[in-house]
């Protein structure tokens, strides 16, 4: 059920979703002195992730899944090393874009390998992969919290070592991966792209605001709730650790409840938690920061249900799984491009509390378009 190459993805996550989101924003503010640049850099990572369809096409065209995943894993460490030598915004943006390309390569191709090489138990394998990836994030956040008070170079060394190990583990990526051919379509069958297109819009909206919030997470928690970055990192690590249990059963829950229904319900819970967090930012009472951290834990804990159910739904709706999942990851990448920029503009104009409202509103819009998935599938 668990293949050795799953741990390669986990180690990539250790750097890209553990170390980078905590240490890079703090380093940018320290070096550049402008919080708005945080949004630009994190958005540029999203721009690099927009290359997902390209890597999916190249891997399928030349049957080079293992090679591309090796390069993506190794590239993450090289990009983090490059961050340590950045002296102006232009340098930050170059390495941010390359980081996004490496992330897109690793995780897009991992999903395609799973649904193509293990079609009979793809649901369970996706859950286990997500569990290990979350475990990598937890370790990365713990590392970030431990070295936050040290120089940025300490995090660079940690990320570089794990990225090297991740590259070595790609040796176990299956060879000869062939995405299943599209099923024959009968006359009058509606195009797969219509309901999938709605899902891509939903996926973009639901990720845009949240990606903006997570890009500013250590700054929001420090500025609005007086939570120091180390504490914020450790709480996020603890919540992510708990979410690994949910990842392990998310595939079964999605099959039982229905991929779309579970996704919509989980998004609604996340939106409610964000709304409560935004209200909390306007209040002042003892232990307010504890409630803020608890709400953020809820936001994190529902992610496994959202991620697994949405990925499975995209695979179900896609006429071509490789292209469909490439577009699916591309929609998330576009959200990671737009979200941090929007959050940065709001933070500069209205303060960090506006970033939380932005995240809740974007999920609300995604829920408004969700019924169209079902209406188009039945039409």
Report what the structure shows.
The chain is an all-alpha fold and 379 residues long. It has a single domain (6-176, 191-378), classed as Growth Hormone, Chain: A, CATH 1.20.1250. The chain has helices at 6-32, 36-49, 52-62, 65-83, 89-117, 122-147, 152-169, 193-215, 217-225, 229-257, 259-280, 288-301, 303-317, 321-350, 353-369, 371-378. Helix 1 packs antiparallel against helix 5. The longest helix is centred in the C-terminal third of the chain and has 30 residues, at 321-350. Mean pLDDT is 87; it is low at 188-192.
Q: In summary, what is this structure?
A:
The chain is mostly helical and 379 residues long.
Distance between the ends? 37 Å
Q: pLDDT under 50 segments (min length 5)? A: 188-192
What is the helical fraction, as a range of percent?
over 70%
CATH architecture: Up-down Bundle
Strand content: under 5%
Level-1 CATH class name = Mainly Alpha
Secondary-structure element series = HHHHHHHHHHHHHHHH
The fold-level CATH name is: Growth Hormone, Chain: A
Q: Which shape, going by the Cα principal axes?
A: globular
Brief descriptors of the model:
379 residues, mainly alpha, Growth Hormone, Chain: A, 16 helices, 82% helix, 0% strand
């Amino acid at each position: 059920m668990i293949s050795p190459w799953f741990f390669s993805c986990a180690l990539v996550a250790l750097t890209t979703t553990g170390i980078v989101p905590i240490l890079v924003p703090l380093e940018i503010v320290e070096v550049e002195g402008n919080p708005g640049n945080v949004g630009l850099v994190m958005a540029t990572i999203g721009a690099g992730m927009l290359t997902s369809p390209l890597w999916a096409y190249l891997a399928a065209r030349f049957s080079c899944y293992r090679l591309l995943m090796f390069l993506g894993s190794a590239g993450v460490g090289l990009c983090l090393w490059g961050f340590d030598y950045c002296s102006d915004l232009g340098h930050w943006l170059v390495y941010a874009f390359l980081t996004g390309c490496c992330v897109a390569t690793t995780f897009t191709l991992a999903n395609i390998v799973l649904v193509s090489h293990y079609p009979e138990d793809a649901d369970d394998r996706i859950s286990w992969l997500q569990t290990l990836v979350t475990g990598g994030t937890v370790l990365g956040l713990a590392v970030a919290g431990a070295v936050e008070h040290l120089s940025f170079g300490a995090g660079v060394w940690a990320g570089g070592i794990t990225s090297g190990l991740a590259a070595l583990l790609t040796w176990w990526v299956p060879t000869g991966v062939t995405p299943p051919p599209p099923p024959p379509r009968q006359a009058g069958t509606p195009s797969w792209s219509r309901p999938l297109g709605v899902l891509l819009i939903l996926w973009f909206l639901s990720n845009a605001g949240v990606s903006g919030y997570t890009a500013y997470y250590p700054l929001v928690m420090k500025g609005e709730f007086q939570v120091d970055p180390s504490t914020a990192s450790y709480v996020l690590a603890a919540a992510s650790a708990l979410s690994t249990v949910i990842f392990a059963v998310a595939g079964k829950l999605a099959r039982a409840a229905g991929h779309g229904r579970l996704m919509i319900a989980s998004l609604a819970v996340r939106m409610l938690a964000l709304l409560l967090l935004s209200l909390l930012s306007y209040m002042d009472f003892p232990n307010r920061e504890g409630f803020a951290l608890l709400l953020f834990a809820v936001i994190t804990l529902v992610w496994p249900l959202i991620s697994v159910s949405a990925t499975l739904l995209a695979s179900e709706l896609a006429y071509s799984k490789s292209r469909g999942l490439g577009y699916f990851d591309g929609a998330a990448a576009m959200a990671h491009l737009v979200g941090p920029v929007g959050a940065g503009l709001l933070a500069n104009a209205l303060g960090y509390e506006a970033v939380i409202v932005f995240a809740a509103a974007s999920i609300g819009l995604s829920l408004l378009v969700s019924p169209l998935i079902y209406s188009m599938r039945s039409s």
